UniProtKB/TrEMBL annotation:
Domain Carrier: 342-416
Gene Ontology molecular function, alphabetical: [acyl-carrier-protein] S-malonyltransferase activity; fatty acid synthase activity; phosphopantetheine binding
TM annotation in the entry: none
Gene Ontology BP, a term: fatty acid biosynthetic process
InterPro entries per the UniProt record, alphabetical: ACP-like_sf (IPR036736), KR_dom (IPR057326), NAD(P)-bd_dom_sf (IPR036291), PKS_KR (IPR013968), PKS_NRPS_Biosynth_Enz (IPR050091), PKS_PP-bd (IPR020806), PP-bd_ACP (IPR009081), Ppantetheine_attach_site (IPR006162)
Protein name, per record: Malonyl CoA-acyl carrier protein transacylase
CDD domains: KR_2_SDR_x
Length: 426
């Protein structure tokens, strides 16, 4: 099986040429296990590369940190690491009421004994109102947030064939919806973070390690992709692909630890994980794998054949495929003028222009939102604005599925026809 990542903008001829080449060459014995991406005729594959860990950044005195999923497992361990900073304030976020969870109260006391100010907030990371209230509380009661560790997550063992859509969605919820809501609330409250660390898993880099946990792998792959989006926008978001810890998290299961050792993955001690975490915070990389791996082990080569820890191929060695780009049909100027007179086209231009802080006249009808500079957080805010005009719920991915003013207007014409009443789009 081979996953090929193509760009639709390159047209059918280009995509057909790529697929034909992949079919002709087949899958080599030591082919990369991850997706193959084609960009501008170049064949690209991701590999793991050893990096020299940067020196840990000097911790901020009086820093205020939010840790989701911070009362148990890896989240609690990372909270303990942050508690060692000078005059730290830690806010732990979890779904369980404090009164019914004595271990959470004990952790708060432990963090305070380490010199930190600690608080536990009950909140559902997948509920917009809960996330907004939590961020507002932290900012109003404690001050500006210096960093976020998003460690909330759910594991639901079982094969995909036996899972309902609701079970699958429950696993995605804290990492996918929770990340969107956190970033949106932080943006709304104008928080300037030193770091946002998302706790991902080695399973999203080496999917074979995930076994039947397809939903869990997908949730972590989302964090990895979001890290790239946020870094491209200049924000300090890092996704850490954790290997198994020896004393906590999934590492609390002896059978799992033994399987990982057999495959060439040495479980991380808490001390080693802590040292790596403090350095990863200062890394400029969007995605960092923290693992103790034997590259020569049979299990590693099977699950990560693209793992080239001593050599990373440069782009100049990647073969090209020649093709004739599929031209996009030119639209006459009068067509654009007509579209601009449409009330919904005009509304969309005005909203996008406001998000980008430019004039509405500078938003072409057929220019992609990404090319204009629209980022993921701004897109979520625009969806909320559009929902007020549409008087119906709209998907958060709206601006990524319909990537121009014209495409989005066509979607809204079908799914929110009431917007074409001029009175609804003022």
């Amino acid at each position: 099986c081979r996953h090929i990542d193509l760009q639709s903008a390159e047209g059918p001829a280009a995509m057909a040429a790529v697929v034909a080449r992949e079919l002709r060459t087949g899958i080599p014995e030591k082919a990369p296990s991850g997706p193959i991406a084609w960009r501008g005729g170049r064949r690209l594959a991701r590999t793991l590369q050893r990096i020299a860990a940067p020196e840990a950044p000097a911790p901020r005195s009086n820093g205020i940190y939010l840790v989701t999923g911070g009362a148990t497992g890896i989240g609690a361990e990372l909270a303990r690491i942050l508690a060692k900073r000078d005059r730290t304030t830690l806010v732990l976020l979890g779904r369980t009421p404090l009164a019914g969870a004595p271990t959470r109260a004990t952790l708060v006391e432990e963090l305070e004994a380490m010199g930190a100010t600690a608080e536990y907030l009950q909140a559902d990371i997948g509920e917009p109102a809960d996330v907004e209230a939590a961020i507002a509380h932290i900012v109003n009661e404690h001050g500006p947030i210096a960093g976020v560790v998003h460690a909330a997550g759910v594991v639901d063992p079982g094969l995909l064939s036996g899972k309902t859509a609701d079970r699958f969605a429950a696993v995605l919820r804290p990492k996918v919806r929770g990340t969107w809501l956190l970033l949106d609330a932080l943006r709304q409250h104008k928080q300037q973070l030193d770091f946002f660390v998302a706790c991902s898993s080695l399973a999203s880099v080496m999917p074979g390690l995930g076994g039947g946990l397809v939903d869990y792998v997908a949730a972590n792959a989302f964090l990895d992709a979001m890290a790239g989006v946020e870094r491209a926008a200049g924000r300090p978001f890092t996704s850490i692909n954790w290997s198994v810890w020896a004393e906590t998290g999934m590492g609390a299961q002896p059978a799992l630890l033994e399987r990982m050792r057999e495959r060439g993955f040495v479980p991380l001690s808490s001390d080693d994980a802590a040292a790596a975490f403090t350095r990863a915070i200062g890394s400029p990389a969007a995605q960092v794998v923290i693992a103790d791996i034997d590259p020569a082990a049979e299990g590693v080569s099977r699950h990560a054949p693209a793992m080239q820890v001593e050599e990373v191929h440069s782009e100049k060695h990647v073969p090209r495929v020649d093709y004739v780009p599929h031209p996009q049909p030119a639209r006459p100027a009068e067509d654009e003028d007509t579209a601009r007179q449409d009330p919904v086209h005009h509304l969309l231009q005005r909203l996008v222009a406001g998000a980008l802080n430019i004039e509405a006249s500078h938003v072409p009808i057929d220019e992609s939102f990404m090319a204009l500079g629209l980022d993921s957080l701004a897109a979520v805010g625009l969806v909320k604005s559009l929902e007020r005009h549409a008087a119906c719920p709209l998907p958060l991915t709206l601006f990524f599925e319909h990537t121009t003013i014209r495409e989005l207007a066509a979607y809204l014409r079908k799914h929110a026809p009431a917007m074409w009443d001029a009175g609804d789009v003022q």
